[in-house]
Request: fold
Amino acid sequence: MCFVQHNCEGIATMGELNKLLDEIADGPGINFAMLISHDGFILENSSGTVDAEEIAGSTVSAILRTLKVIGRDLNSGEAEQILVKYDKGWLVVDSIT
Reply:
């Protein structure tokens, strides 16, 4: 699994982003990839992404916001990456600004 959280203003067209996310999702062991806004809206996703991943997108966004607050409270800076290992795979979240 792969989620990417990003503010994509002026970076690429949505078609280019979709192609990039499809390339990421085609990697070994990766089920899907998506680009979500900081408020959890899906901006673009890889082909074949299903409703469950859409629900997970908003949840991951909320988790990342929470971890950023914890980082500020601990004077550690903002969370840039989250890695979670599940029984059947990994969840990888990168915050790109």
In short: The beta strands are 2-6, 33-36, 42-45, 81-86, 89-96. Residues 25 and 32 are 5 Å apart (CA to CA). The two ends are 21 Å apart (CA to CA). The chain has a mean pLDDT of 76.
